[in-house]
Amino acid sequence: MVSSKLQKVDEKMIETDFSEKTPADLEKLKSSVGRYFPFYEVKVGREGIVFFCKINEERLEEDFESLRIDLSHQGYIPILKNVSGETAIYVVPKPEKRNIPTWVNLVLLAATVITTALTGALLVSGKTTMWDTESLIVILRFENLLNGFLLFSLPLLTILGIHEMGHYYVSKIHGIKTSLPFFIPVPPILNFNIGTFGALISSRDPLSNRKILFDVGIAGPLAGFIVAVPITIYGVMTSTVVPLSSISKGELMLGSSLFFDMIYKTFVNIPPGYTLSLNPVAFAGWVGLLITSINLIPAGQLDGGHIARAVLGEKQKYAGWFSIFILLFTGWWFFAIFIVLLLGTAHPPPLNDISPIDTKRKILFFVALLILVLCFVLFPIYPADMLS
């Protein structure tokens, strides 16, 4: 997942009174804007400077990116918008940014390795809790911790890490400053968790146009999906087929996605009355595919929100609300509430919201929707007595 608070600058605008800027400051900004976009009217006020200008559609993206870099050195951000049929460039101050030191990323990664290895140790030892002395002794055995790391923590963090590095490297390709991944550790204190809430990176520059917004958004899910598929296939092929009668009524079962069904039906022969007991590697793949699909939900600052905003423009908000409505009737209703309250359903526009998206990215948009549909699990866990 990638988040960018800087994309919200056009919603709040600024509190600086530009009417108090010196003539020299204003002339310097006018010179920078005029170098790339000839303007015929300028308005100066508390909401910044607005340049009404003419554009060369063939060079719009290149000219705007050059202007963004120019103004960035001066501490400003340009925002390109259509205002009542006219093309306008708003120039606003860059928000103050606070760089988080790299050691924070490393500490969070180390903590997440520990929490996911503990979760893996739970899985390989057959325990459901670590909060009694006997279970704790078994879980903390070196063999169980090592296998927990190799069979669960490593494959899961590989999927999550490559997902985030997909965002990171595509951001770098487009010249967007961004943080290294922040992994979120969660101790295995509940009957069901995976030792982490995933990971995210934070863009330190605003995303310039729809193409960059799309590329950064889709890079993570595609990279993670490509890695999750072979891990899942290997895990499924090495898992055990067990009779349904061996499953106790109080046991929790994992829901399945269309894509996961395709994998185990292709690579494993499961006779009637039997089911597949996933080993830790298969479970890590199951989680990786599920996280990929969740990130592709077209709402807010999720990866799917970035992608949908790039392709659908302002209509993305309708896709966001539609997805929230669907989630309310699944096992993800709590996540729908989380999105509405904390992330919001609408995604802020890129700085240049005028340049269109190209055909190849529109095709990739439908590929992302296909991955979302195929990998989404309506009800991730359910009690075993629902099998009867």
Outline the structure in words.
- This protein is of the alpha+beta class and 388 residues long.
- It has two domains: 2-93, NADH Oxidase (3-Layer(aba) Sandwich); 102-387, no CATH class.
- 52% of the residues lie in helices and 14% in strands.
- The chain has 13 helices and eleven strands.
- The chain has helices at residues 9-12, 23-36, 60-74, 102-125, 133-139, 142-173, 210-237, 258-267, 280-295, 303-312, 316-327, 333-343, 359-375; strands spanning 2-3, 39-45, 48-53, 76-83, 86-93, 182-185, 196-202, 240-243, 252-254, 274-277, 381-383.
- A hairpin with a 2-residue loop joins strand 2 and strand 3.
- Helix 7 packs antiparallel against helix 9 (280-295), helix 7 packs parallel to helix 13 (359-375) and helix 10 (303-312) runs antiparallel to helix 13 (359-375).
- The protein starts with a strand and ends in a 5-residue tail after the last strand.
Index terms:
388 residues, alpha+beta, NADH Oxidase, 2 domains, 4-stranded antiparallel β-sheet, 3-stranded mixed β-sheet, 13 helices, 11 strands, 52% helix, 14% strand
Short overview:
Helix content is 52%, strand content 14%.
Which sheet architecture does the biggest sheet show?
Answer: 4 strands, antiparallel
Strand order of the largest sheet: 2-3-5-4
Q: Whole-number average pLDDT?
A: 87
Q: How do the SSEs run, as a string of H and E?
A: EHHEEHEEHHHEEHEEHEHHHHHE
What count of domains describes the coordinates?
Answer: 2
Apparent shape:
elongated
The count of helical stretches stands at 13
Strand content: 5-15%
Which secondary-structure class do the elements indicate? Answer: alpha+beta
Q: How much helix, percentage-wise, in residues?
A: 40-55%
How many strands appear in the DSSP assignment? 11
State the end-to-end CA separation.
38 Å
- In the predicted model, the low-confidence regions spanning at least 5 consecutive residues are 5-16
